[in-house]
Amino acid sequence: MLPKWHLLIGFVFSYVLVYFFNFSVLSGVIVFLSSWLIIDFDHYLLYLSINKDFSLSRAYYSFLLRKEKYLKLSLEERQAQQQYKRNLLIFHGIEFWIILGILSYFNNIFLFILLGFFIHMLADWTEMYFIQEPIYMKFSQTYTFIKNKKLKEFVLK
């Protein structure tokens, strides 16, 4: 899902939490930032590790172009892509969420981050459902890593 939609969804959810559920403004800001900015930092880290390039704008446009090209493939072509490796996005997996859950016992800030991540993931999973993509790659990074061992790299032409 594009960042602008995560930004909008995060803002609406955060506003509702602050206005209707008596969350503090600080907790609303944390939920807002974690629902669109913090969680997607792993996309930038992936770009950085592959390209050795610190440019945030080039990273954004690289992912945007890759996604555009991928979504232009027919459903049959996309299903054939199941033979290719999926990106490992460390913040998009249950493994990291468990760590946040454990840390939330020590400080509530991690609970708000986890809530923001959950809001983000609901949006991602909804999009994946509509574009008929498997959700495993944005549920368990361990499973994605294991599954990737048998697959080859995906290269867009």
Task: Write the topology of this structure.
Blueprint: H1 3-20, H2 25-38, H3 41-51, H4 56-72, H5 75-80, H6 94-103, H7 109-130, H8 141-148
Distance between the termini: 22 Å
The number of helical runs is 8
Biggest sheet record: none
Low-confidence stretches: none
User: What's the rounded overall pLDDT mean?
Assistant: 91
What would the principal axes of the Cα set say about the shape?
globular
**What structural class is derived from the secondary structure elements?**
mainly alpha
**Secondary-structure element order, N to C:** HHHHHHHH
Helix amount: 55-70%
Fraction of residues in β-strands: under 5%
Q: How big is the Rg? A: 17 Å
Strand count: 0
Structural domain tally: 1
Characterise this structure.
The chain has one domain. It is built from 8 helices and no strands. Helix 1 crosses helix 7, helix 2 crosses helix 7 and helix 6 packs antiparallel against helix 7. The model has no long low-confidence stretch (mean pLDDT 91).
